Amino acid sequence: MPLTDTPAAPTAFTRDPLWWRSAVIYQVYVRSFADSDGDGTGDLRGVLSRLDYLADLGVDALWFNPWYPSPLADGGYDVADYRDIHPAFGTLADAEELIAEAAARGIRTIIDIVPNHVSSEHPWFREALAAGPGSSERERFWFHPGKGPNGDEMPTHWVSNFQGDTWTRTVNPDGTPGEWYLHLFTPEQPDLNWNHPEVRAEHEDILRFWFDRGVAGVRIDSAGLLIKDPELGEVPESVAPGQHPTEDRDEVHEVYRSWRRIADSYDGTRVLVGEVWVPDASRFAAYLRPDEMHTAFNFDFMSRPWQADELRASIDLMLAAHAPVGAPSTWVLSNHDVTRPVTRYGRHDSSFAFAKKRFGTPSDLALGGRRARAAALLTAALPGSLYLYQGDELGLPEVELPRAVLEDPMHFRSGGVDPGRDGCRVPLPWRGTTAPFGFGPDVATPWLPQPAEWAALTVQAQQADPSSMLWLYRQALRLRKREAALGDGPMSWIDAGADVLGFRRGDDLVSITNFGGAPIALPEHESILLASAPLEAGLLPSDATAWLRIAPAPRHP
């Protein structure tokens, strides 16, 4: 379908104020989605050209990783200007057209906000460096003299989220060593001082800037890290709740209450979605109180191994954590930071942790593929909203790339031990039998190389194949929209035997997942709505999920 000459107004927001509670949200990593101009980098016009694919897939919203001007020291999470678009991705006009065209297809837009830090190329930080110690410009950041006789020691020994140190020393105009500045990630990502009123006012204005342009929500990166201990205390061996010097401090909730007031001032429901890495369930739920965020990412489920007891424990944990605040859980199998499910679930250790990533970790991709299909149906049947990372609907595996092409700072800051996150960010294959597989014009070389074996995984190769991962996802998302019991709402476990997860949704739908080594008999049912694998003599095979229509339980007066 060609794009219309006049983009439609984004009116979808007012149709369902609770859309976010059951939404299927598709994560777009722009750089790797589709390249419209042949420079090897995905862009917004490439996304525009594929909106009908996304509409046909059945998604309700698109979440875009940062699309702003950035030196790309950390894949765009080092933002230099929040009110524009990275020139490699397009223009602000392209973004406005994309938001409107997606809305015309019933698809909302969620954008990334990175409030903990900015790029070292951001005007504020450049002004701070130029202004020197003691200046008001430096008060927006965490500049601090070093310890020791000559200030040669870092102010703290906090450890970076990307490993290594969290402080970098500046150089004064006369060439002498200067103050140190804080960066919980890379030196190119200086942390903002959220005790400063200008920092808070700036981000509130950024929210309004994008809400005015029709975005339906923001995903908040590293949401628990904004507030730091002004005394710069070291991390103690035992940390009391809310007392860690850089994580999950109680004062952070004031920020999100302010943001929620802004979101609620707009027509329709504009949502706040948090990236909240907080292990304590009650502390996690505090971010989801009715006057703060709408939802937050569920990292626990994504990190668990492919075991029935582990996943059931995670489901119970997350549902219990959300219940006191009335928020829906979110379910996700991967994202732009995490090893793809087909690869992860084919490994001996199928759990995920950044610290465990290593080159050469073997994976049985056939096994991982079966489990990823089963996991797709399992997660789509759980109550709440569902996130889908681009390419997972194609069953793409993680790519172990040559070291020479890697760009991720996690690789370099690990001393080359960690392969980093580039392997899940390889550009998508759309059509054809050779690279670039329709990612861009055939003469273009993608910014990361695609494996030759992806010829069998293109959209073109899968779209008419009932046995493909793409076909499975399309059917699952269509059923999820059709069946009132799916999405937000209650669920109850059923006794389905050892190494099996079974639960009821509504009166007449059951999801069954077989984690065991042998096929199992299905519960009594009227029909099979969808299965991740063909039955074997009427039995559900190992590493498979089925959705069943069952007879409604009798209602007693």
SSE arrangement:
Layout lengths: L23 E5 L15 H6 L1 H7 L3 E4 L27 H13 L3 E6 L9 H9 L11 E2 L22 E5 L5 E6 L14 H16 L4 E4 L31 H13 L6 E4 L6 H6 L8 E2 L2 H5 L4 H15 L7 E3 L8 H4 L20 H17 L3 E5 L19 H5 L45 H4 L6 H14 L8 E3 L6 E6 L3 E6 L5 E2 L5 E5 L7 E2 L3 E6 L8
Parallel strand pairs: 1-2, 1-11, 2-3, 3-7, 7-8, 8-9, 10-11
Antiparallel strand pairs: 4-6, 5-6, 12-13, 13-14, 14-18, 15-17, 16-18
Explain what this protein looks like in three dimensions.
With 557 residues, the protein is of the alpha/beta class. It is 24% helix and 14% strand. The protein contains 14 helices and 18 strands. It has helices at residues 44-49, 51-57, 92-104, 123-131, 197-212, 252-264, 281-286, 299-303, 308-322, 341-344, 365-381, 409-413, 459-462, 469-482, and strands spanning 24-28, 61-64, 108-113, 143-144, 167-171, 177-182, 217-220, 271-274, 295-296, 330-332, 385-389, 491-493, 500-505, 509-514, 520-521, 527-531, 539-540, 544-549. The protein has an eight-stranded parallel β-sheet. A five-stranded antiparallel β-sheet has the order 12-13-14-18-16. The chain has a three-stranded antiparallel β-sheet with strand order 4-6-5, with no helix packed on it. A hairpin with a 5-residue loop joins strand 5 and strand 6. Helix 5 (197-212) packs parallel to helix 6 and helix 11 (365-381) runs parallel beside helix 14. The longest helix has 17 residues, at 365-381. Mean pLDDT is 94; it is low at 1-10.
